[in-house]
Design a protein that fits this description.
Length: 103
């Protein structure tokens, strides 16, 4: 799964380089993957966090745990790409928010 994500990312990056795909489409596509993996990771965490749900979904807990871990790992990888694109913005944001508070 992780290799697929990295290969997929490199393929769409190559498509941008070859001008088969715009940079905007590439970023939109991976932003959607990031959102989807976040949603699946969060939803599959719920039965572990909420007692009532874990009782109700007991037979599926193992599968849900596996999904949670797999989608969570993909989310981390895509989040790293995402942070790398927006690194300059984030650095500027952190610098600004760390400044002295006005009197
Ligand atoms: C949206 C973000 C996330 C939320 C809200 C979340 C929440 C949770 C919760 C509530 C549990 C159960 C903890 C317990 O019972 O003590 C859990 C377990 C776990 N989480 Fe996450 N988590 C998130 C992201 C991730 C990510 C990115 C990973 C990386 C792979 C990850 C890996 C795991 C693993 C391996 C477990 C144990 C699963 C099992 O027992 O089958 N989680 N998480």
């Amino acid at each position: 799964m992780l290799y697929l994500v990295i290969i997929g990312y490199l393929l769409t990056r190559f498509a941008v380089y070859k001008k088969w795909m715009s940079l905007m489409t590439h970023q939109k596509l991976w932003n959607i993957v990031l959102l989807m993996t976040f949603i699946v990771t969060s939803v599959t965490a719920l039965p572990f966090a909420i007692d009532g749900l874990s009782g109700l979904l007991m037979p599926y807990l193992r599968t849900l745990g596996e999904w949670h871990t797999d989608f969570g790992l993909v989310m981390i990888i895509v989040a790293v790409f995402h942070a790398a694109w927006h690194w300059r913005y984030m650095k500027a944001f952190i610098k600004k928010t760390r400044g002295p508070t006005p009197a």
